[in-house]
């Protein structure tokens, strides 16, 4: 079920693909850990994790409805996705700067890997939602439609690429 961990784009790929792919996977680690933690909510110890600010989030002995479900779907994972995206894109920019490469195609590749991550995370969240609401019978409840969330987060990725690569006009040297 954790196939989402292997983020692989179809070929052809850039020469930096292996390290970009590794970087995105590493940046996504806190997300994977939290997805696993939420999966445990209906089990004995329940859910014990932290939000993006390090604040504890704990539920045990309660059903996945009302408040816990609202927390799950209302911005718990998005800040982690945005952070992974920002870190990965900035890393790619720095990497290209060091190698004197035009960042364009490498940023596109990073963005494509992040888009894949976004799809996998929301699909896994939808499945987790079904498992927790169905209390062991996931197919007894309808899956949540995550398409709007995927599209919104992909829009955020595009905005980040623009923001991180936006440069002013270079200053003209002083006369002299």
Give a quick precis of the structure:
58% of the residues lie in helices and 5% in strands.
Overview features:
two-stranded antiparallel sheet; 2 strands; 5% strand; 176 residues; mainly alpha; 58% helix
Low-pLDDT residue intervals, each spanning 5 or more residues: none
**What is the general shape?**
elongated
In whole angstroms, how far apart are the ends? 66 Å
The major sheet is characterized as: 2 strands, antiparallel
H/E element sequence: HHEEHHHH
Q: Share of helix among residues?
A: 55-70%
Tell me the β content.
Answer: under 5%
Radius of gyration: 19 Å
Order of neighbouring strands in the sheet with most strands: 1-2
Classify the secondary structure makeup into a structural class: mainly alpha
The pLDDT mean sits at 92
Number of helices: 6
Total E-strand runs: 2
Describe this protein's structure.
The chain is mostly helical and 176 residues long. Helices cover 58% and strands 5% of the residues. A hairpin with a 5-residue loop joins strand 1 (47-50) and strand 2 (56-59). Helix 1 (17-27) packs antiparallel against helix 4. The longest helix has 30 residues, at 104-133. The N and C termini lie far apart (66 Å).
How are the elements arranged and paired?
Blueprint: H1 17-27, H2 29-39, E1 47-50, E2 56-59, H3 67-76, H4 78-98, H5 104-133, H6 147-165
Antiparallel strand pairs: 1-2
Helix pairs in contact: 1-4, 1-5, 2-5, 4-5, 4-6, 5-6
């Amino acid at each position: 079920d954790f196939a989402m961990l292997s983020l692989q784009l179809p070929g052809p790929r850039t020469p930096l693909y292996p390290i970009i792919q590794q970087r995105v996977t590493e940046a996504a680690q806190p997300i994977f850990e939290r997805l696993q933690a939420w999966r445990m909510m209906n089990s004995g110890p329940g859910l014990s994790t932290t939000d993006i600010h390090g604040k504890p989030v704990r539920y045990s002995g309660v059903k996945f409805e009302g408040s816990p479900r609202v927390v799950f779907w209302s911005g718990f994972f998005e800040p982690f996705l945005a952070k992974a995206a920002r870190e990965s894109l900035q890393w790619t920019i720095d990497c290209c700067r060091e190698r004197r490469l035009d960042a364009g195609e490498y940023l596109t590749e990073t963005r494509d890997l992040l888009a894949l991550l976004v799809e996998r995370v929301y699909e896994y969240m939808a499945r987790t939602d079904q498992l927790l609401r169905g209390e062991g019978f996931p197919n007894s409840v309808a899956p949540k439609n995550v398409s709007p969330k995927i599209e919104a987060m992909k829009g955020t990725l595009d905005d980040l690429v623009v923001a991180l690569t936006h440069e002013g006009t270079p200053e003209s040297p002083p006369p002299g």
